């Protein structure tokens, strides 16, 4: 019961926080614009369902009620965004939930279209980001604490506690996008030439190929997976 109360408090805090700042997405031009997944019209986002064809279910989601699927980094990511909650279309908000195994890592990545704020629901994590001046900002955060990652900066969260950890994440975009640094460099499609990556990391082509072999075959499900790209 206490866990569920804290979970609801986390969602409330994050929602209020983002309601008090300007969203990174364009402002809506009407009260609601429920995403029409079946429309053939291509816009910056989704086109709207016709008036009165939406339902209350369009404005609700169980997307972060349970942990997501496990990935190779020791985390499970679940999302609530415009792709599974059509009522969020044009509202400039989305959420995710990240559950960490012991030593689980939400690896260095960026969101080009959103600032991210996290609320620690359970556990103890090391959270950090790197500025464009190459300054590393990091802090040990614990249950009940909030930490923010500025838009577009490389950041990560690492479970340093003895048990599992869970965070609730809010973005000021319905589609924040993501680039996981390791996957972008070593598992892009098509691949970046081996010699380019080797020169960038000052290592050998053989080592680049060895890293690719460990990353490319995996089906990596991230907090920021295809659902929120």
Automatic annotation (TrEMBL):
InterPro entries: Cupin_1, Germin, Germin_Mn-BS, RmlC-like_jellyroll, RmlC_Cupin_sf. GO terms for biological process: plasmodesmata-mediated intercellular transport; regulation of root development. CDD domains: cupin_OxOx. SUPFAM superfamilies: RmlC-like cupins. Residues 62-209 form the Cupin type-1 domain. Belongs to the germin family. This is Germin-like protein. The gene is LOC104210421.
């Amino acid at each position: 019961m206490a866990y569920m109360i804290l979970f609801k408090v986390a969602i409330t805090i994050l929602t209020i926080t983002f309601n008090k700042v300007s969203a990174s997405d364009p402002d809506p031009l009407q009260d609601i614009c429920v995403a029409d997944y079946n429309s053939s019209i291509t816009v910056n986002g989704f086109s709207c369902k016709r008036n009165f064809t939406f339902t209350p279910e369009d404005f609700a989601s169980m997307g972060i009620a349970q942990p997501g699927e496990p990935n190779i980094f020791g985390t499970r990511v679940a999302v609530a965004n415009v792709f599974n909650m059509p009522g969020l279309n044009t509202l400039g908000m989305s959420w995710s939930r990240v559950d960490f195994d012991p030593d689980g890592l939400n690896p260095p990545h960026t969101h080009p279209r959103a600032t991210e704020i996290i609320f620690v629901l359970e556990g103890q994590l090391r959270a950090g980001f790197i500025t464009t001046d190459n300054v590393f900002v990091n802090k040990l955060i614990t249950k009940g604490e909030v930490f923010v990652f500025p838009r577009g900066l490389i950041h990560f969260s690492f479970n340093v506690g003895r048990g599992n950890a869970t965070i609730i994440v809010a973005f000021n975009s319905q589609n924040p996008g993501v680039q996981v640094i390791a996957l972008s460099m070593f598992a892009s499609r098509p691949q970046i030439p081996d010699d380019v990556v080797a020169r960038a990391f000052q290592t050998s082509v053989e080592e680049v190929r060895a890293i690719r072999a460990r990353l490319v075959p995996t089906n990596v499900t991230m907090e920021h997976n295809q659902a929120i790209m």
